């Protein structure tokens, strides 16, 4: 019989690769184990002890003592009787038994365990724990059962350095497998500097395993207890010799070794520091509180340094569906950050769903599917790939086709508007803009461009208009857009706007969950042209959002009636210390969370609050340096009086100013066309009307699209 080394299902090939590097030849046995290949029993024993001491991927080292081929009902007693107990029992005679049933085979584990233990010889006694015991593993199958001795005792993943794993600790053996898949062992042996960054380091397991491997620290040296110490056939003197050799094999850190871990969670970083200190590796690893979206090239590699490195990480997966959706966008953010900072580095990422990794936008060259207890996880080795967003559509050159006569007027107006905006578009890099806004009475539409997509929004005609005539006008409008912009039918989306009340504005129109990504300044934003009446981005507030990003560095930012969080995102990217976004809609807040994740920001420093804004403002007493408030013209609420912006804005502003820190600024905006600021606000506070400045070039045909004010405490 041969020793069997088990691992997490899916890692057998990586385990065999690791053992070969240790000089231990093996052959994979399925997806979760390898069999040691040495022919001589003495060499097999040495190899098994080497695995216990040196393998970072192995879970257990097992040796079959007896096999029963037949029904499982009689296996416990027959296997116990087949063991030569005097040759197996160590000093003390304690026996600890673990029982496993083959999948699909029913059985009472406790009863099976007692049946086996009743057959122990008089000089042996059962023990509930593995410490100080001969550890046996009884595997019952429908046609074949086996009793094995477990040289590991406790699983080999328990290195001894980690007491606090954080909220979702990464198994040490899985962390080691990730490093093996990323070819970290070869990098620490190479002449060029070995660099590794984990932007979601949590309690630091990946970095600790990487540091131990770089210093050639045997993972078994951190443990004093093994099952092999209580198995009589083990040559204990040889085991002690192997331990001494392992202690002597530790080396100093390779030249240029760089290990960095970042996380937004201060408590996770505290655990990481404690674990690193316990392992004696604290001086080797740089931990810092930082979000993915805030990382710059200097965080990965020193200025003027050359060479490549690895990003090895286990991003947050999320348990709820909306959290899993954000996890996918977070993977895309990782690809974008790497593309911006270290485009020639390699990433090895862990995810709970392959779709999350698909969304990264990176190019994969290897992947593994691993069973981690009840969960399936995916490992993928990838490289960032530049995939530029499509340039915004403009009316340039010849028409795509000759439109019908009834659509020519709209085509000509689109051509004129595009010509007026072309220089601004080329210079600003704006990707989402308004091309047309009810310029012609017969075409009561707004037409917005989102990259290579077009959104036509028809303002609902009065009931006196013949529906057939209205439908024909919609057809002409779509035809004009396609002819002028050269857009295919699937690039054009049509919506009809009508006054919405209560929850009607939040209702889904489709179930596609089809999001497009557009660039605005230095952030990316998600828009949805299919599922909702609104796209998720108010284009007329573009200058205001960019200004918030410029003023947010180090600020505590509050975004009220936050919608999909675009203003929050600009503040976060601008270096805000923290942000709070308040909105009554769960859907919009989930959308805001996805926007944050798409740019590498999470919920630790950026709080999303579902609440009635006026109630939240009245009940909370936090202070903010920068506030953006963009209320609706009208809003009804079951638990409060209706909100009417012209009537109620003064009270809202006075309450908001109680939250504004000295030297801070409140930006107040609204879309009510006949809005007038209450004169009392100007008497109490310093008010600057910035409406004209805040209207971008693509909305200047309608200067009453919104009003915007900067309000401060003054002297």
From TrEMBL:
The keyword Cytoplasm applies. One of its GO terms (molecular function) is 23S rRNA (guanine(2445)-N(2))-methyltransferase activity. CDD domains: AdoMet_MTases, THUMP_AdoMetMT. Pfam families: Methyltrans_SAM, RlmL_1st, UPF0020. Residues 3-62 form the RlmL ferredoxin-like domain. Its EC number is 2.1.1.173, 2.1.1.264. Residues 467-671 form the S-adenosylmethionine-dependent methyltransferase domain. The keyword Signal does not apply. Residues 159-376 form the Ribosomal RNA large subunit methyltransferase K/L-like methyltransferase domain. Keywords: Cytoplasm, Methyltransferase, rRNA processing, S-adenosyl-L-methionine, Transferase. PANTHER family: RIBOSOMAL RNA LARGE SUBUNIT METHYLTRANSFERASE K/L (PTHR47313), RIBOSOMAL RNA LARGE SUBUNIT METHYLTRANSFERASE K_L (PTHR47313:SF1). This is Bifunctional 23S rRNA (Guanine(2069)-N(7))-methyltransferase RlmK/23S rRNA (Guanine(2445)-N(2))-methyltransferase RlmL. It comes from Isoalcanivorax beigongshangi. The gene is rlmKL.
């Amino acid at each position: 019989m041969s020793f069997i080394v088990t691992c997490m299902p899916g890692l057998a090939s990586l385990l065999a690769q690791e053992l070969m590097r240790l000089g231990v030849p093996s052959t994979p046995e399925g997806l979760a184990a390898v069999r040691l290949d040495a022919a001589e029993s003495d060499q097999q024993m040495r190899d098994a002890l080497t695995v216990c001491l040196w393998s970072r991927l192995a879970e257990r080292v097992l040796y079959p003592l007896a096999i029963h081929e037949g029904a499982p009902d009689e296996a416990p007693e027959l296997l116990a009787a087949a063991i030569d107990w005097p040759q197996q029992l160590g000093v003390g005679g304690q026996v600890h038994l673990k029982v496993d049933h083959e999948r699909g085979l029913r059985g009472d584990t406790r009863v099976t365990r007692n049946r086996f233990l009743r057959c122990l010889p008089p000089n042996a006694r059962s023990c509930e724990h593995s410490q100080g015991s001969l550890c046996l593993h009884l595997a019952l199958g429908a046609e074949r059962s086996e009793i094995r001795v477990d040289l590991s005792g406790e699983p080999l993943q328990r290195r001894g350095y980690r007491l606090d794993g954080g909220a979702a600790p990464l198994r040490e053996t899985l962390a080691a497998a990730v490093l093996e898949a990323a070819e970290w062992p070869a990098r620490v042996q190479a002449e060029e500097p070995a660099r590794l960054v984990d932007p979601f380091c949590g309690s630091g397991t990946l970095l600790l395993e990487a540091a131990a491997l770089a210093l050639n620290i045997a993972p078994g040296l951190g443990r004093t207890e093994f099952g092999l110490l209580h198995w009589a056939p083990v040559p204990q003197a040889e085991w002690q010799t192997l331990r001494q050799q392992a202690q002597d094999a530790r080396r100093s850190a390779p030249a240029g070794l760089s290990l960095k871990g970042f996380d937004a969670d201060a408590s996770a970083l505290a655990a990481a520091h404690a674990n690193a200190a316990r392992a004696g590796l604290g001086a080797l690893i740089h931990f810092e509180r930082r979000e993915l979206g805030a990382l710059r090239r200097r965080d990965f590699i020193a200025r003027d340094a050359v060479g490549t490195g690895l990003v090895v990480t286990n991003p947050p997966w999320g348990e709820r569906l909306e959290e899993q959706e954000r996890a996918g966008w977070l993977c895309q953010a990782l690809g974008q950050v790497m593309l911006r900072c270290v485009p020639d580095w390699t990433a090895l990422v862990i995810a709970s769903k392959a779709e999350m990794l698909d969304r990264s936008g990176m190019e994969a060259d290897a992947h593994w599917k691993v069973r981690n207890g009840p969960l399936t996880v995916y490992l993928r080795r990838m490289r960032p790939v530049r995939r530029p967003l499509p340039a915004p559509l403009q009316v340039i050159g010849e028409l795509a086709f000759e439109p019908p006569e009834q659509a020519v007027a709209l085509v000509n107006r689109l051509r004129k508007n595009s010509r007026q905006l072309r220089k601004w578009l080329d210079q600003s890099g704006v990707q989402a803009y308004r091309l047309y806004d009810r310029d012609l009475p017969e075409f009561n539409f707004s037409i917005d461009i989102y990259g290579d997509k077009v959104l036509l929004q028809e303002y609902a005609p009065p009931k006196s208009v013949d529906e057939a005539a209205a439908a024909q006008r919609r057809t002409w409008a779509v035809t004009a857009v396609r002819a002028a912009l050269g857009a295919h039918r699937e690039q054009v989306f049509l919506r009809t706007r009508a006054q919405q009340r209560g929850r009607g504005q939040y209702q889904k129109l489709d179930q596609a969950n089809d999001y497009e990504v557009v660039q605005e300044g230095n952030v990316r934003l998600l828009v949805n042209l299919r599922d909702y009446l609104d796209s998720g981005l108010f284009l007329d507030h573009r200058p205001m959002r960019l200004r918030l990003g410029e003023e947010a560095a180090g600020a505590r930012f509050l975004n009220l009636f936050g919608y999909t969080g675009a203003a929050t995102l600009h503040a976060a990217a601008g270096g805000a210390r923290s942000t709070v976004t308040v909105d009554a809609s769960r859907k919009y807040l989930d959308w805001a969370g996805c926007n944050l994740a798409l740019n590498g920001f999470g919920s630790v420093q950026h709080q999303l609050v579902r609440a009635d804004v006026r109630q939240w403002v009245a009940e909370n007493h936090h202070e903010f340096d920068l506030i953006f408030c963009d209320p609706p013209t009208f809003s009804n609420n079951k638990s409060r009086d209706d909100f009417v912006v012209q009537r109620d804005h003064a009270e809202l502003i006075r309450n908001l100013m109680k939250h504004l820190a000295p030297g801070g600024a409140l930006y107040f905006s609204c879309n009510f066309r006949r809005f007038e600021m209450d004169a009392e606000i100007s008497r109490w506070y310093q008010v600057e009307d910035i409406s004209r400045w805040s209207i971008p070039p693509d909305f200047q045909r309608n200067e009453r699209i919104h009003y915007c004010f900067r309000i401060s405490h003054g002297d």
